[in-house]
């Protein structure tokens, strides 16, 4: 049963997180595929730029919530089955496979999003105070500097630094750090554009023209 909970957590998290709200809503509401529009990334930022604010925040909430609920569930089950102290391992382990499902979804030919919101949800579940602080930092940074990609990367990197400092167990902290490196890799094109001064700016509350 102890091995089974890892297998179940990995499979359930991957397959559920592989369902992408941006793709579903773009097809259902606008009769378009977000993967063929704008930057072609099926995530909140591109959805907002292409279709405006009306449904973009729903994409944000669903992307965050699908991983958050999975992490809550398996964090609880890990502690129930493996014993006290295993909740954070369950959260981090589940978050990692939810991230992989979101980034490489079997339902969409393994072409998915960059998984920032999934990893942010993991940070919230590991330590809600750090999660809240990093989310506030991200929002303020975007409002001031307007670069969403830079804000998101900095926010989760700060989280990776703070988790061990605030005594999060070693293995969950390492898993989370791996997730951060993965998201940085997924943003490699954004990073190149930032260095070239070509990265698009993001305006949270400005509608599509």
The whole-number mean of residue pLDDT values reads 94
Instruction: Flag low-confidence runs.
Output: none
Structural class: mainly alpha
**Shape summary:** globular
Please report the total strand number as a whole number. 0
Radius of gyration: 17 Å
Write the layout of secondary structure elements.
Blueprint lengths: L1 H16 L3 H10 L13 H8 L4 H27 L4 H17 L12 H11 L1 H18 L2 H18 L4 H17 L1 H9 L13
Helix pairs in contact: 1-4, 1-5, 3-4, 4-5, 4-6, 5-6, 5-9, 6-7, 6-8, 6-9, 7-8, 8-9
Please explain how this structure is put together:
The chain is mainly alpha-helical and 209 residues long. It is built from ten helices and no strands. α7 packs antiparallel against α8. The protein is globular. The mean pLDDT is 94.
Short account of what is shown:
The protein is mainly alpha-helical. The chain has helices spanning 2-17, 21-30, 44-51, 56-82, 87-103, 116-126, 128-145, 148-165, 170-186, 188-196.
Primary descriptors:
10 helices
